[in-house]
Amino acid sequence: MTATPSSPQSLQLARRRFAQARRSAGYTQETLAAYLGVERTTVARWEGGTSEPQPHVRPKIAEAIRVSRDALEELIADVTDDRAAWAIRLQAEREVRGWSKYEMARRLFMAAGISGGNIKSLNRQIRQWEQGIHFPRDWRTTYTVAFGMEEDELFGNVDRSGRRPTTLDPLPHGEEEDVERRELLESLAALGIGISPVGQALESIRSGIARTFESDERQQIAHWEETAVEHGYAYMAAPPERFVTDLAVDLVTLRLITKDIDRDSPVYKEWCRIGSVLAGLMGKTLSNLGQTREARHWWQTAQAASDSSTDVETRLWVRGERLIHGLYERRSPHLLIRHANDAMELGQGHTCAGLAHVSTGRAQALVLAGMNEAAERELSRCEQIFSDLPGQVTTETNSVFGWAVSRLAYTQTWVSACGGDIAKADTNARRALQIYPASDNRTPVQVKLMRALACTQAGDITAGISEAQAIYEVVPAEHRTTMVTDLARRVLSPISLEARRRSDVMAYEELLATSAQSSQKAIKS
């Protein structure tokens, strides 16, 4: 039997939909506060449910987050209980029986067989339990006796032992953080990532020693910068399904390390930069796995974090990567061109790999939109950007953070292939294929498929289908990513419906259909 708690003022409340609308509009709490001329903590209080925006500021909020004023009023009114489910249940079961907290304390002492217990002290603990601040691990069984309920019904499948779980890295503040840590670890378990008790214990020991000797936070930042660089290399070679699990572990650990960093701290922006890169890599990987919707959430997180970092190169890198993956997710080329234009404006005066990313993405989107001449002009601009990049960037072929000439040749191949220029596509493809490292298992396949696309675009269906089939059928299932498979499908796009009845074309379509069924990448929730 349950009831809705009757004292909402005492609850931990949150305007979740209001916060989601703010994020969807591209604002962080900090940037929205700056736009409105208020403090970040004011926006945080609005979203936390402890205060409401004043009437005079509401029209400006509605304009910023792109909703009507009526919709904004609904968002402000939509305040939900943000406590753990077991905490809500404890209060509900007590109130439905008409018991005060003092009566609850008396009943718990009776159920435990304790006479003369300190009612006042236990009353304070009950308040903290019902607020979700602490978990009643020593009183769990007693609660079930007092309420006459089964443990599963009252507490759900949460921390059945009642003991504080061993975690990746002990936190200094209370059990509410223990709850978040447990939820993060459960998320890893849902991905099939197990952390053994021995591994947990060793990590606890290591983190304790680290707090003693690694007093300089700069050392920790340098370590995580190196971790991000290593992921940049691993992305190129590892199958996405394996890479996503390794990356998830580091994202969880990073979250636990940084959750209490003050936004005014001198190192806050550096942590934002590292977090945005790792989130961007997660967006890239989920996109490769065909998880487009999930990828977009990660791209939004990466972009917001990069904006908070105020580092222009990182902001451009995230936007450029998001733009390029949008091509393979079949997003509107006109929308992508608009995003590219905004990013190019942001990058004025900043020659870097991120700007080259944006420029190549814009060239590819332009040719898809049928603006071939504009695409050629953008290629010329990209060539100029490339010539101005430092040598350590243009000679790096093994990492997503490098921008070697192979990237330029890739884009040139794309533009010429979509234009049906077989000779140009072949020349550019050969130049790119000479540069890719042996560890890159996917990009060379994409370049070869573009060469096949050039054939079908020019009307040579036999050569295009024959080459595409020979390329795609030998690609291991684990490397048939969204980018690879999308290009394989694009080979069919120029072929008329009548020509689709040809036996070789039908056989190729069957190969793609069979592949989609057998190698579908899905992360189960």
Automatic annotation (TrEMBL):
<dbReference type="InterPro" id="IPR010982">
    <property type="entry name" value="Lambda_DNA-bd_dom_sf"/>
</dbReference>
<protein>
    <recommendedName>
        <fullName>HTH cro/C1-type domain-containing protein</fullName>
    </recommendedName>
</protein>
<dbReference type="Pfam" id="PF01381">
    <property type="entry name" value="HTH_3"/>
</dbReference>
<dbReference type="InterPro" id="IPR011990">
    <property type="entry name" value="TPR-like_helical_dom_sf"/>
</dbReference>
<feature type="domain" description="HTH cro/C1-type">
    <location>
        <begin position="18"/>
        <end position="72"/>
    </location>
</feature>
<dbReference type="InterPro" id="IPR001387">
    <property type="entry name" value="Cro/C1-type_HTH"/>
</dbReference>
